[in-house]
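3.2 Worked example (two chains)
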Amino acid sequence: MAKPKNQREFSVLSISLGVGFATGLYGISFGALSVSAGLDIVQTQVLSLLMFSGGSQFAFIGVIAAAGVGGIGVGAAVVSAWLLGIRNGFYALRMAPLLKPLGLGKLIPALLTIDESTAVATAQKEIADQKKGFWLTGAAVFVFWNLMTFIGAVLGDALGDPKNFGLDAAAAAAFLGLIWPRLMERQTFAVAALAILIATFTTPYLPAGVPVLVAGLSSVIFGLFNWLKPKEQVIK
């Protein structure tokens, strides 16, 4: 039985705000770590405003912290961030038919096409709810992420290690909550398990960002064969 429209709208709104806040909390960690890596507050904030991709941003400052802000360090940081950001391009392929952006109107949805906005959108059954899920989640994450980035950058060393507060787990837990209902199917669970195993075992040996791409590609190939999902019976 389909839910009433107002109930669906409230559900999408509450999920979007919850995911936005949980993800935004981790921005405190990014802000603090970015400043400790050698970037100033303005540079840190610009990264969150324009790059706006948590994985890419952490990869960027991770390389900067290890290699410094010299030419080679910045170049390596950009490449690492780019590798992690490639996945957003695949999300865009999924979201473009839904949003149908035109001309310069593509810029805003392109910026907001991230893990969370795509996950919330695709979790909805109705097209209207999918669009609302994308925009509301993207906007919520953008606002909270940038606000928390600023707080983390300003407080800096006073926070200590942000992971001590469990902020790194908050975003992951929120994302897991979104995809959990889909993991009840054998095929989806198997694909997710395969991706986790591949990413886990390749991370120590491959550059930042590459394990995610390898895991994603393997999952796509595995999913295309549809080995574990029972075939629908055709009623004659």
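3.2.1 Second chain
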Amino acid sequence: MKKLFIPFLLLFVFILSACGNDEKSNTKNSSENEKETFTYQSENGPVQVPKNPKRIIALTNGPNVLALKGNLVGIDEWSNANPLFKEKLKGVTVVSEDDLEKIIELEPDLIIAGSEMKNINKLNEIAPTVVYTWGKLDYLTQQKEIGKLLNKEKEAKEWVNDFEKRAKSAGEAIRAKIGEDATVSVIENGTKEFYVFGNNYARGTEILYQAMELNMPQKVKETALKSGIHTISTELLPEFAGDYIILSTTPDGDNSFLETNTWKNIPAVQNNHVFEINTKASTYSDPITLEYLLKFFEDSFLKN
């Protein structure tokens, strides 16, 4: 009996030892994977970035990171103030490019910054820093670039392809309802003036004019298509109003213009063709915002 017991005991010890080695090996491999880097071609030159960043500070393009479920520990104040991102940003610290001490305390392994920011060299000393220029890339290419940066290019491309199909289909349905020649203006109420927008200035302009291929009024095309934005006075509103108006306002802003005869006499207003969006929730062109606005446009144009 003792002779049989000893070999079994040795076999048991050997199995335990092998399992222990496997666990150590797996832990080591997991740790090495977390530390792996690759070269990302940023606007500020090639940057060695982590393959799987765990602590991202986004001083720009934070919503794009959110859409890909990136691990944010720091975010800019404008993204944080956006009602669409409020729940998703719980526990994320608000920082700016000047909050260097706070950024150090957050121990980032990746920083995303705007090319106009002054402290890029200092940020790069804290963690690998990738730079983007707002508007340099079109809105969908920008998302694919963020996907590439976060090692989630496949997910980003899949979303882009799906979104393009759905937006195009919605555009076809909307044009069939309102007419191929109908025009749409995107107008925003400022402090003392109004803004009209071209086809790449957020507020849903990329969806309406690019993806859906809706028409902008000739006056808007002449003044805002190239620059992206054009400032007008209250008196000029009728000249820039399309058959349909997407009106961007803030709930706590001065919207007294809505009671003026200038506004009330615009045909789109009289025909109930004005669809109002919240400025604070519409100033980005990331997937979260785009999905929100796509649904809003479908509901507004097709269900009214």
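3.3 Remarks
The chain has a mean pLDDT of 92.
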